[in-house]
Amino acid sequence: QVMLADSGGGSVQAGGSLRLTCAASGYTYDGHCVGWFRQAPGKEREGVARILPGSGLTYYADSVKGRFTISRDDATDTAYLQMNSLKPEDTALYYCAARRPPCLLSRYNYWGQGTQVTVSS
User: Fold this and answer.
1) What mean pLDDT is reported for the chain?
2) pLDDT surpasses 90 at 33
3) Which residues 6+ apart lie within 8 Å of 85 measured at CB?
4) Shortest CA distance to 90 belongs to which of 58, 49, 59, 29?
5) Is 70 helix (H, G, I), strand (E, B) or coil?
6) Is residue 1's pLDDT more than 90?
7) Which of 13, 48, 59, 83 is most solvent-facing, going by the fewest CB within 10 Å?
8) Distance of alpha carbon 26 from alpha carbon 28, whole angstroms
9) Cα separation of 16 and 83, whole Å?
10) How far apart are CA 23 and CA 21, in angstroms?
11) What is the C-alpha to C-alpha distance for residues 60 and 47, in angstroms, rounded to an integer?
12) H/E/C letters for each residue in 6-63?
């Protein structure tokens, strides 16, 4: 059974940092795309960042460029989202997801349960 367990969310003040973790079981990240998404109340789900297999190329939403960093460790099937300089508008439920290439922003097959990030001003 495939499971992605995302964790690391919490409540921080603006300017703070959090590191989200997504650990896979029954699944290997090797050769697969890994992405982080978020959804705030009343808003559509947004793709935040994704990382390609092999090359490790990364892509970010404009709203998080320069502040967030996605990374992966295929040896342990774990992905990370380092979030710095957090803003109140980053408040959302964050999900990790995985799929086979191509590494688009849609049609991810596997999803974590979500971890809440709350940033206060």
Assistant:
1) 95
2) yes
3) 15, 17, 67
4) 49
5) strand
6) no
7) 13
8) 7
9) 8
10) 6
11) 8
12) EECCEEEECCCCEEEEEEEECCCCCCCEEEEEEECCCCCCEEEEEECCCCCCEEECCC
**Angstrom distance (rounded) from CA 34 to CA 104:** 10
Q: In whole angstroms, what is the distance from residue 11 CA to residue 1 CA?
A: 31
pLDDT in tens, 37-48: 999 999 999 999
Please state the separation of Cα 112 from the chain's center in Å.
Answer: 9
Query: What is the C-alpha separation between 5 and 95, in angstroms, rounded?
Result: 9
- Contact yes or no for 38/91 (Cβ under 8 A): no
Environment class of 6 (CB within 10 Å of its CB; exposed 0-12, middle 13-18, buried 19+): buried
Could you report how far apart the first and last alpha carbons of the chain are, in Å? Answer: 40
51: tokens are 């990382």
